[in-house]
Write a structure and sequence with these properties.
- The protein is mainly alpha-helical.
- It has four helices and three strands; from the N terminus they run H-H-E-H-H-E-E.
- It is globular, with a radius of gyration of 12 Å.
- It starts with a helix and ends with a strand.
């Protein structure tokens, strides 16, 4: 990911309202969502397990893995550009650039 794209990704994450997340915004939580977004951009598609196993240990934002995914990452990641959340019968997140 280029430095410009990374800076743009940070700006997009920092513009999220957190209205669909039952948690208050903190810098650590923004960093966790940004890390999940960057990981998805890099890998293009991955499962919940892939996100939790590869991003949560480094950017847990003080949350256990269930809270991290269900209360923070899942509601916010789906709001980001190019993200296609899992649909019925699938657990796969996809990044489809516009």
């Amino acid at each position: 990911m280029s430095t410009t794209h990374a800076a743009n990704a940070r700006a997009v994450v920092e513009s999220l309202s957190y209205r669909d997340a039952p948690l208050d915004r903190t810098p650590a939580r923004d960093d966790a969502v940004l890390a999940a977004y960057k990981y998805l951009i890099t890998h293009r598609s991955l499962s919940r397990l892939g996100l939790v196993a590869n991003v949560h240990p480094r950017r847990d934002a003080g949350l256990d893995s269930r809270e991290w995914y269900e209360l923070l990452v899942s509601p916010l990641l789906r709001e980001l550009p190019g993200v296609s959340p899992p649909g019925p019968g699938t657990a796969t997140w996809r990044y489809v650039p516009e």
